[in-house]
Amino acid sequence: MSPRTRSQKASAELEATDPSPAVNGTLQPSSKNGPEAAADGEVQENVFLFAPNLIGYARVVLTMASLYYMPLHPRTCSLLYSVSCLLDALDGYAARYFNQSTTFGAVLDMVTDRCTTACLLVFLSSAWPRWSIVFQSLIALDMASHYMHMYATLSMGGSSQSHKKVDSSRSWVLYQYYHSRTVLFICCALNELFFIGLYLLSFSSPTLSPSLLQPKVGGPAGDTTIPPPEGYSSPWSAGALELARANKIDSFWPWVITGISFPVMALKQFINVVQMVKASKWLAEGDMASRKALRAAKNN
C-alpha cells in the first residue's frame, strides 16, 4: 500500500470516529464539547457563574461574616450586614444589564434575604428575651408570606413566572410594592435599617438593655463598666476591649434610625400579611378549579 493510500485510509478512519467536517483536507474540531454541549454547536452557559449570582454568593459570605461579629462587634457587624443588604439592589441591576435573569437567581436572592433577616431577629430575641415572641412572630410571618407567594406564583402562574410580576387586579398593594423598584428598595432597605437600629440599641441603650448599667464585680457602686464575658478573663483581650467600646456607643443615632424607619417597617409587615392572604386565596382558587374539573371529568 502506498504512503498516499495509507494516509487516505487513516483520514477515513478519523472521519468515521469524529464526524467533524474537513475543510481543505484539514479536520476541524468537533462542535461537541462533552455530553452537555448542544448538537448545533450552541454555547453552553453556566447559570451558577452569572454576574448576579456571583453577587449573591458575595452576599452570603458577607452575611456569614456579620454573624460571626454580631455578638461582640456591633460596628463591624453593622457594616458587613449593611453592605450585604445594599448588594441586594446591585444583583437585580446586574441581572437586567447582562440579561441574566434566572429562576435560580431569584430563589437565591429571596432565600438570602429571608435567612439574613431571620438571623438578625434571632439575635434580637436573645438580646431582649421579653420581646422574643415578637421577633419570632416576625420571622414566621416573613418566611410564610414569601414562601406562599412564590409557591403560588410558580404553581398557578407557571414556572417561568416571576414572583415580582403581580397583576394589579389581583392586589393593588402588591402591584405598587413590586412594580416600582424605588418603592421596593426603600421598603426593604428601611425594614432592615430598623432591625439594625434595634441591634445597635442593644449595645448602647440602658433603657432597653438594663444590663449595660450593671456595676463591675468588686468595683465601686457607680462603676458602670461591664465585666468581660466568660472566655475573656483578661480585661485587655480583644473581645473584652471591643465589648467595652460597644457599651459606650452613643445611643442617639440608633434611636434616630429606628424612629425614622419604624413606619416603613410596619408597612412592610402589613405588605407581608397582604401577600400571605392573597397567596392563600390564589392557591384556594386553584384547588377549587381542580376539584371542579375533576367532578366534570367523573360526570362525563
Automatic annotation (TrEMBL):
Bilayer-spanning residue ranges: 183-203, 252-271
Which terms does the record give in the GO molecular function aspect?
A: CDP-diacylglycerol-inositol 3-phosphatidyltransferase activity
* Any single biological process term in GO: phosphatidylinositol biosynthetic process
Which superkingdom is the protein from?
Eukaryota
Q: Which UniProt keywords apply?
A: Lipid metabolism, Membrane, Phospholipid metabolism, Transferase, Transmembrane, Transmembrane helix
Alphabetized Pfam families for the sequence? CDP-OH_P_transf (PF01066)
Q: Does the keyword Membrane apply?
A: yes
The subcellular location is:
Membrane
Primary location group: membrane
Q: Which InterPro entries match?
A: CDP-OH_P_trans, CDP-OH_PTrfase_TM_dom, CDP_ALCOHOL_P_TRANSF_CS
Specify where the region named Disordered lies, as residue ranges: 1-38
Question: Its GO CC terms?
Answer: Golgi apparatus; membrane
> Key word Lipid metabolism present in the record?
yes
Ranges of Polar residues composition bias in the record: 1-10, 23-33
The membrane topology noted for this protein in its Swiss-Prot or TrEMBL record is: Multi-pass membrane protein
Q: Which family does it belong to?
A: Belongs to the CDP-alcohol phosphatidyltransferase class-I family.
The name this protein carries in UniProt is CDP-diacylglycerol--inositol 3-phosphatidyltransferase
Taxonomic source organism: Aspergillus aculeatus (strain ATCC 16872 / CBS 172.66 / WB 5094)
